[in-house]
Amino acid sequence: MKKKTVFKCSNCDYISPGFFGKCPQCNEWNTLEEIEVSGSEKTATTVKRSKNIAKKLSTIEDRNAFRVKTSIEEFNRVMGGGIVRDSISILTAKPGAGKSTLLLQVANDLSSSGLKVLYASGEESEVQIKQRATRITDEISENIYVYSDTVLDNVLEEIDKIDPDFIILDSIQTFTLNELQSRAGTPTQVMECAHKMVEIAKDVERPRMVFLVGQMTKQDELAGVRALEHLVDAVLLIENEDNEELRSLLTTKNRYGSTGEMGFFLMTQQGLKSLDNPSEYFMTYREEGSELPGSALSVIREGTRPIILEIEALSSQSFLPYPSRIGECMRREHLNTLISILEQRANLKLIDKDIVVKTTGGIKLKEPASNLAVMMSIFSSRRDVAIDTSTVFIGDVGLTGELKSVPSLELRLKEASRMGFKRAFIPIVSNKFENIEGLKIYKCKTILDVIKYFNV
């Protein structure tokens, strides 16, 4: 029998068809050894995929008709309205953020509607999965199957037997194919396993929904090569601060929805609870007349959704040569820029003040629409002037002190109206927004014009 020759790294089991002086995977020198592989060795299970044919673009049905919705509204939002039936997605997060918990909740929800689910785990036993399911669900559906193994060939055999509609692999870095000699987690194993699951999901006659759990590196990135992200249809990320109950689900890629869409959850003893109205979470409830200095409200946008956000600032006397500038929710350079504009364009002396800025809920300020609210919160704290809680500030502020327009301004104003706000300070724009019910709109040219309404 003719033998095939490959080169295997003695340090990390990387396999290459050619010789390298330095291993491309572990970067060790002179570790590749020539070995022979028999051509008659048993290969991994081959996925039987139906042959496709070319179709006219005009005759192809809209993907929205193939979406499967869950009862978890925030999850549906992030996915673009639901899970597409022949899609493959990957979910990643730090350890303990709730990846497995969220997918198990989605699995139980889908199975309760009659769909068959297979949860294959290479990290946990069936007993561990059952314990989590008992904790987070009131009743475990009969349509959920669990399988604990690290060999993908065995998982593929179970898929043929069970014929599930929804498949979860937790995590993709723990599975291996018998035809490959490298260890689990290597780029070759991960990519080949992912390719097998793509074939499973994209089968023309039997499309399936597939979710892969991906491990995260110390740099808070999806572990593995970038090609893995290109391969899948959607990449989801769960973000959370240490010891915080708030979880945000973010899409960094979505072929069937908006990239950058964000959903919010609260981690509880019963799993992740969907936060369907996050505006109530990101602002402090205060009765009219009980406002405190140092607080201002804005309307930010996460994905396609507008959210009311409270921004707090504290200005205090500094006794150091260089005052502190602490922005828990924004970059220090950005905060210093806004402070400089206030000093130069609004005649607000801050050179000897320590300034701290944060947001309720710890959400990060990523867009310029909140700049006006940040500056007004600093002004409110510095002048000890309370801003009433029925007012929102929407707009960017330039280095000249002029207010700049921001995207989706009308959408933000409608959200403010829906939440019961009475006043909104915005830049002077060509669009007319006088018809927004219950909201009085003040169009201002500069930051100084806005301050004049509150300067006492």
Automatic annotation (TrEMBL):
Binding site for ATP: 93-100
Region: Lon-protease-like, residue numbers: 354-456
Record GO biological process: recombinational repair
GO cellular component: cytosol
Gene3D superfamilies, per database record: 3.30.230.10, P-loop containing nucleotide triphosphate hydrolases
InterPro entries given in the database record: AAA+_ATPase (IPR003593), DNA_repair_RadA (IPR004504), P-loop_NTPase (IPR027417), RecA_ATP-bd (IPR020588), Ribosomal_Su5_D2-typ_SF (IPR020568), Ribsml_uS5_D2-typ_fold_subgr (IPR014721), Rubredoxin_2 (IPR041166)
Top-rank lineage group of the source organism: Bacteria
GO terms of molecular function: ATP binding; ATP-dependent DNA damage sensor activity; damaged DNA binding; hydrolase activity; zinc ion binding
Motif segment (RadA KNRFG motif): 253-257
Domain RecA family profile: 64-216
SMART domains: AAA (SM00382)
Keywords, in A-Z order: ATP-binding, DNA damage, DNA repair, DNA-binding, Hydrolase, Metal-binding, Nucleotide-binding, Stress response, Zinc, Zinc-finger
Role this protein plays: DNA-dependent ATPase involved in processing of recombination intermediates, plays a role in repairing DNA breaks. Stimulates the branch migration of RecA-mediated strand transfer reactions, allowing the 3' invading strand to extend heteroduplex DNA faster. Binds ssDNA in the presence of ADP but not other nucleotides, has ATPase activity that is stimulated by ssDNA and various branched DNA structures, but inhibited by SSB. Does not have RecA's homology-searching function.
Domain-related comment: The middle region has homology to RecA with ATPase motifs including the RadA KNRFG motif, while the C-terminus is homologous to Lon protease.
Annotated family: Belongs to the RecA family. RadA subfamily.
Protein name (database record): DNA repair protein RadA
Organism: Anaerosphaera aminiphila DSM 21120
